[in-house]
Amino acid sequence: MRKIHFGKFVVSLALISASFIADLFFAWGFMAYLIVSFYLAKMTGSTRLVMRLAIVISVLIIAGYFMAVTNLQQDTLEVTNRLLLLVVAWLSAFINLRFSGSNSDRKLGELFKLTATERDQAVRKLGQITSDIETFREERKSIENELLKGKRLHDAMVHNFPDGVICVLNRELKFVLAEGKGLKELGLHGAELRGEQAVIGSGEELKLAFAGESVSFETTINHQPYTVKAVPIPDANNEVKEILIVIRNITDRKRMENNLVKALEKEKELSLLKSQFVTMASHKFRTPLSTILSSVFLLENNIEADDQERKSYFEKIKRSVHNLTELLNDFLSLGKLEEGKVKVAYSETNVKAFFEEFLEAIGLIKKGKQEILFTYGGVANTIMTDQVLLKSILMSLLSNAIEYSAYDAEIRLDVELSKDNLKIQVSDQGIGIPKDEQHQIFKGFYRGQNTNNVEGTGLGLNMANKYIRLLKGTIDFTSQVNKGTTFIAKIPVVTLDILEKQI
Asked: Which of 72, 102, 169, 500 lies at a C-alpha separation of 20 to 30 Å from 138?
């Protein structure tokens, strides 16, 4: 009996050794252990013999795993196969000890069939897991690509933010992020600002954003206006540890607002001037027309009037006609000046002769015994100038001197021509200009508070000033109430050679 058991033990060891060798040299050699396990299940023998063989098979299966390969990082399928072989070996030993005969063969077949089914199920599950892992990897790669694309888009938007800066601050009001084209204007770089203390406004406004409020205010950075908008950035716990701030340069907007305000002010001023014009024109036209009508009526009906009386009527008519003509000319000239239609037309002019001829014409509008004293001095008296503009300047200055002076007053016109300038000085001994009104004297339609009893439009000095500027000159004055006024105009000398060089 012992010989039989020994023989079975030798045969079993031979089969086990052959399986071990096959496991070492063939990729699927470890499957030979299934034959050994089948033999173990069918073999008859003592419990001790079966247990010894099962232990030997288990050791060789494990040893074969480590000896047949050099890479210990084995895949899941290899490990699963070895574990299944161990299970089969010990199931075979259990069957040998538990069953015998034909019943044992039948039950052994069922067990092997069950074991193969479980192995197939495990293989299928492993394949499904592998497929799920691959799907997860693809989905993760797709999500990573989308996140990378979103980050690049975010970085591009933030870096190229126009006219300002986008930044994130923490509770210590230090920069976490700062980007935007506005950084370049400020001479800064986003990377340099990270961790630095932010100085935006007073800082109190930004603290409101950490309380969950949206904050907007204006501030000045490097002498330029900016708008600041701050909003909270709540985290997963709805706590605000950081805030998002958008800082925009509004220099252009402020400039447009200022231009709009100036335009509105100018519009109001023009509207006021139009209103003043209508009021003044209705009055100024009515007064000389009434004087003309009354003088004509007296001439027609006062047959007994002597020559002196008739002469005074004619003087009133002439003065009224002159006033009407001057008024119309002022209105027409003002319109052309406002529209920019007045152009300088230079012509050769004998200065002394021009002034003498002008004084003859203006002598007709003098009052009573008024006298205009004219002096001329300087170099050769031929220059290039616009005679129409020069005549308008003289008419404004001298007519004002005549109107605001007494009937027997003396008025001076002093002209000096130098190499560089034509100096025109008009002095009177009239009512003068109040000191607190002198800064407004060149405004259109403006008349002093002490001129209510004197006819005038309030346009003469305004237009004279504009004409002098067209000739690139300047005008200044000194005045004392009830002592008189002196106007001094200086106009650069233009010669034919200078005009040819400009052309």
From this structure: 72
Statement to judge: residues 458 and 358 lie in one domain: yes
SS3 200: coil
CATH of the domain at 438: 3.30.565.10
Range of the domain at 177: 160-249
Helical (H) or strand (E) element with 138: helix 101-159
Same domain assignment for residues 454 and 354: yes
**Cα gap 362→423, rounded to integer Å:** 20
203, 350: one domain: no
Using CA atoms, how far residue 405 sits from 93, 172, 358, 437, 485, in Å, is 146, 76, 20, 19, 10
* Assigned domain for 270 exists: no
Domain end point (choices 196, 220, 249) = 249
**CA distances to 188, 220, 499 from 162, in Å:** 15, 18, 49
Domain count, the chain: 3
Torsion over CA: 30, 35, 40, 41 (sign): positive
* d(C-alpha 454, C-alpha 402), whole Å: 11
Last residue of a domain, which of 215, 233, 249?
249
The pLDDT profile of the chain, 503 residues, written as one tens digit per residue, is 455 556 666 777 777 777 777 766 666 666 777 777 777 766 666 677 777 777 877 777 777 767 655 444 455 666 777 778 777 778 877 777 766 544 444 544 555 555 667 667 777 877 787 888 888 888 888 887 777 776 666 565 555 566 678 788 888 888 888 777 767 676 666 666 777 777 777 677 888 888 888 888 888 877 888 888 888 888 878 888 888 888 888 888 888 888 888 888 877 776 766 666 666 666 556 566 666 767 676 666 766 667 777 777 677 677 667 666 766 666 666 666 666 777 888 888 999 999 999 888 887 778 878 899 999 998 767 888 999 889 989 988 998 898 888 888 999 999 999 988 999 999 999 999 999 988 888 887 777 777 766 766 677 788 889 889 999 999 999 999 999 999 999 999 887 666 666 55
